[in-house]
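Hi all, long-time lurker, first post. I run a small reading group and we've been trying to get comfortable going from sequence to structure in the token notation. Rather than ask abstract questions, I figured I'd post a concrete chain and ask someone more experienced to write out its structure so we can walk through it together at our next meeting. Sequence below, copied exactly:
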Amino acid sequence: MLTTVNSLVARLHELLVGHLTNGGADVVAGLHDIVARATTLGPDGAWLAAAAHADLSDLAVAHGQVDLGLRHLDAAVDGGYNDCVALHVPTVRPLHQDPRFRAAYGRMRVTQADLDEFFWLHREMQIAVSDARTATVDNMGRLDTGVSLLPQAPLPTREPNTPGVLITRIHLAAIQGALQQAAVKAEFQRSSGNTALDLIDGTWDPTRARYDAWHADDVDTRRHHAAQSRAFTERPGASTALAPCPPLGSIHYPA
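-- Answer (accepted) --
Happy to help. Here is the structure in token form:
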């Protein structure tokens, strides 16, 4: 199979969705494969290698392998990784006093325009998870056989100033994809269960089902409009000049 930027983006997305949905055991090997294949693309693939290194760093730190995690973080920064918002998540904050972490963080550069998008991307990750939880509760007990999807804000399409933004867009897309898969699976199980009630024992209530379907459509419409209204809008006048990331500890996460 020919290795291209697009094919590696698709592979990285697939790996991350698999890891989020079922803890895909091959994720580490897959990420190392992406590093190797992205490296063969030269400068065009540097940001994808950085993306895989950033994910390997997260996985290592989560498993208590701090030294390994910091080595991957260094490699990610070398390739253009600069998501300073992500480096303020609770699991990473304990590393803020480590000189190696501080050195890597200090090498990152970002524009204000890209920083605005980083904040938006991380807020949207939090909203996506929250909306999925709310939808799960709302759909419990529905007697209709319809299937509700999870409306999600569209990914930004602006040309970023730094490639690190592309990495975090993939992360958001993977979270959205994993949540959507889980929601669709649960909805099909509910729908088929309601169909079985009607066919097997006749306890299905068609009047209640019609009401539930109407209510679900109304909620879905409102959620869709809310998601579209959250689309990223670039702030007029936001600087596109590279500058150091905000000081460690100055960013509150969730953003």
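A couple of things your group might point at:
Helices lie at 5-22, 27-39, 46-62, 66-78, 99-107, 112-139, 164-201, 206-229.
The two ends are 39 Å apart (CA to CA).
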